[in-house]
Amino acid sequence: MVNWNNLDTLKSYEALTKVSRVDLVSVMSGESGAERVKKYQVPMAAGLSFNYASREVDDETLKALSELAKEAQLSEKFEALYNGEVINTGEKRLVLHQLTRGQLGNKVVSDGVDKREFYLSEQKKIAAFADKVHAGEITNENGEKFTTVVQIGIGGSDLGPRAMYLALENWAKKNGCFKMEAKFISNVDPDDASAVLGSIDVSHSIFILVSKSGTTLETLTNESFVTDALKKAGLNPSKHMIAVTSQTSPLAKSDSYLQAFFMDDYIGGRYSSTSGVGGAVLSLAFGPDIFARFLDGAAAEDKLAAESDVSKNPAMLDALIGVYERNVLGYDATAVLPYSQALSRFPAHLQQLDMESNGKSVNRFGEPIDYVTGPIIFGEPGTNGQHSFYQLLHQGTDIVPLQFIGFKNSQIGNDVDIQGSTSQQKLCANVAAQIVAFACGKKDENLNKNFKGGRPSSIIIGDELTPEALGALLSHFENKVMFQGFVWNINSFDQEGVQLGKVLAKKVLAHETDGALSEYAKLLNI
Amino acid sequence: MVNWNNLDTLKSYEALTKVSRVDLVSVMSGESGAERVKKYQVPMAAGLSFNYASREVDDETLKALSELAKEAQLSEKFEALYNGEVINTGEKRLVLHQLTRGQLGNKVVSDGVDKREFYLSEQKKIAAFADKVHAGEITNENGEKFTTVVQIGIGGSDLGPRAMYLALENWAKKNGCFKMEAKFISNVDPDDASAVLGSIDVSHSIFILVSKSGTTLETLTNESFVTDALKKAGLNPSKHMIAVTSQTSPLAKSDSYLQAFFMDDYIGGRYSSTSGVGGAVLSLAFGPDIFARFLDGAAAEDKLAAESDVSKNPAMLDALIGVYERNVLGYDATAVLPYSQALSRFPAHLQQLDMESNGKSVNRFGEPIDYVTGPIIFGEPGTNGQHSFYQLLHQGTDIVPLQFIGFKNSQIGNDVDIQGSTSQQKLCANVAAQIVAFACGKKDENLNKNFKGGRPSSIIIGDELTPEALGALLSHFENKVMFQGFVWNINSFDQEGVQLGKVLAKKVLAHETDGALSEYAKLLNI
């Protein structure tokens, strides 16, 4: 049995608040710094490794964090989760996204269905469908091959799949497995759908309608937008559209789609990239084998998250250090900084993953809590960010912990040698330099040119951003967020905070408003 | 004469810390809320208006802010700036970006040159060049028209121009003034340049190399990348490339370019969208007339910023309320939330503009300060953000002030009527609903479904995102950042915090490292 207790009731947390503060400038300088870089790293899946030498921890802090992990029963809670307990208590649901890519524990049966078998069978159905599209067995009305796939979805049905597609697009082109270009329609702003439709040849496009409930207003609106466009082009929408939804949704049995693929309520939107939500678009774009390799990377990383020895569990370690930074050191935000253009939208995905999961003020029993929870997450790829907001990160009045990601090799492999180094070497040199600049700073008598240092960061390093590495990266952050939710004793798997806005928007559209809302509606001409 | 004093030495600031706290839930409910929405708004240029009814202020707060504006001499400081005083004291430079779009005060002469005339003449040179390209008078080696323009630049040479291009791309297509597609190469990651080059027809592409100093490593590296690609395609790079740089840069007199256009040290990178840095790419993409309309919008908004009555000066008002939120109320971040897909990269531009300008810990005399300065800036377009990080904004443990932007009409004008409303109406209904949901909240006995409210926001509302409206928006935020820098007594126009990373990266590339830096370099295979 696991015990769910608030963080501030744990003895190990009180102990953590009393550990000696690490002076990064001092410990990261000279030989001590070199030793830390060699010592404070842990292997991840797919050849990645997590190096936390420049986080504000030492052996004493890590021991205290390890005690916290034990008292908070992080491993036991993860075990309960992957063995199918009702972890999403608010919505009374299991939490099974890890099961879309592997089986960590016992068979999970719900309503008589082996859930691993269910997810696998949907993955296979998608694979078979994608193979037929690629082989020209499923075509448009004129018997011509589809060349473009367009995902219609919002939130978790958009951000994760889009970030994953962009992450592998160039890799797939380079490695001869680029099958179809993918586009995404998400916003209810009509200009979003108009612009995407204007940029493609609809007669050779297949659309994926993604909505678990089948009732997401933005997505249904954009479906209409697309079906209108298809009809105007003299095409039959039902021959150009598939659905990814739950079996109980109104979309599931509609004959408006070529085929429907299923997920269920146990896969939260922001955790759905490894389900059919990511599976359909990625399998169509790159082929089912590439999607399977992506899942393999995630599954391998999940296994490491199930390791009870904190020092061998990168996600748990990252989570615990993050809690220390947020609750003890008082840092309010975390920046995600991938030195990889392919990961340009990965921070936007993590922004949803983290902030929607852990931006909560009540514990899992609906009681108020007296400590801060999820931080603000933001980020852009390096080196671009260096020429943008790094000024504040280096010399601003607040300290922002940083999560770097870097790869030894580029995806495409084209490069140019200028001033004695390649672009890839310059990219890697910059991320190495930034970590040390943030940690150690540099004294200058002119305080405007002075760098205080003491600004913590960690880095995940890989050989190359492959499908496996991407899966491992995704799993790492999903599990980090999950462990932090466990520590904070909150439910990371619901999102009640998005409801009120929806209710009020409906009132505006029904002209059932008064007071301020009525005046704002007037100003906006509704 | 203006006096430069730290914020915490001002009597009006002390008074501001003592004003009664506004209870947003209470004042924004019922008739009082409706009155506030009507009362707390101020017209901007280009038909925009700034509504701050849902910010945490009332007449008492506003009076205190107005006193602060007077004591901090905000109008006098702006006047000194636009009349050509050395406001960027760290680098001993004038600050003249407003002069690229209009003349607010006296003639500004530097080194015998009338700077307004200089910026205008460069704008005209660019216009003449763009007209010749569009007319087919300047062509590729085969006498064929250029169809694509590619900007090579990073930071301010990338984020602003890219955001502006995306903001007007669909508008230009709809309004028959779309001349050339634009692409952007920024990151030193070789996959960035490779991917862009792989997506265009280089033989019909014209490249704009943008670097004020002519020494930006990323940009010069990417220039080589491009010239290599042009040579491999049998093309003459000097017939495909122009430069935007300063007259003293090594690029200025090079014969590697069709033509060079100039800016100077008085235009900071993040303030350069209205100079040749934005001018070349926007004039080529949409035509010089559209760029001129964008400048007109910015110039008109600048005029409002020069208004000494705070209640008629949207940028100053926004700045002052932001200082109150940051320094008195203790809010650490601000989210920018445009309900317009066209503004998808506008938050990324504002992130640089704000965080690089005001992420400082010393005052303009290089002395340490004892109060917080620039906040973290992040954001994504609505309604997408609603399905991502709004959970934390509504129910997280920290309060984040919000800056909404909305337009009554879409740019393209295609729309679809579903469930009794158009997409544009749904978009506008959502932003209205969010403002009230954040301000007023909603009580629920189930605390997991309870919304505390009290979360401040403002909104800029316009008819449509036109070139003029975009210019006004840009100017608003540039001037807001400037006024906040004045209040904090910092230099918003240098960026010494970006230097250390550059120095250390060079050491890594030269293999002149030891300690932690050497170990990180090894891990990254450099």
Detail the topology: elements first, then pairings:
Two copies of one chain form a homodimer.
Chain A: H1 11-16, H2 24-27, H3 30-39, E1 41-43, E2 49-51, H4 59-71, H5 74-82, E3 109-110, E4 113-114, H6 115-135, E5 148-152, H7 159-174, E6 181-185, H8 190-198, E7 205-210, H9 217-232, E8 241-246, E9 260-263, H10 276-286, H11 288-305, H12 314-328, E10 333-339, H13 346-358, E11 376-378, H14 390-395, E12 402-407, E13 417-418, E14 421-422, H15 423-440, E15 457-462, H16 467-488, H17 499-509, H18 515-523
Parallel strand pairs in A: 5-6, 5-7, 7-8, 8-9, 10-11, 10-12, 12-15
Antiparallel strand pairs in A: 1-2, 2-15, 3-4, 13-14
Provide key terms for this protein.
Rossmann fold, alpha/beta, 18 helices, homodimer, 526 residues, five-stranded parallel sheet
Beta-strand fraction estimate of chain A? 5-15%
Averaged pLDDT of chain A? 97
Dominant shape of chain A: globular
Q: What would CATH call the homologous superfamily of the domain at 100-288 in chain A?
A: Glucose-6-phosphate isomerase like protein, domain 1
**Spatial separation of the terminal alpha carbons of chain A:** 54 Å
Quaternary structure: homodimer
Name the chain pair whose interface involves the most residues.
Answer: A-B, 160 and 161 residues
Detail the poorly predicted runs of chain A: none
Gyration radius of chain A, to the nearest Å?
24 Å
Class from secondary-structure proportions of chain A: alpha/beta
> What is the highest CATH level, the class of the domain at 100-288 in chain A?
Alpha Beta
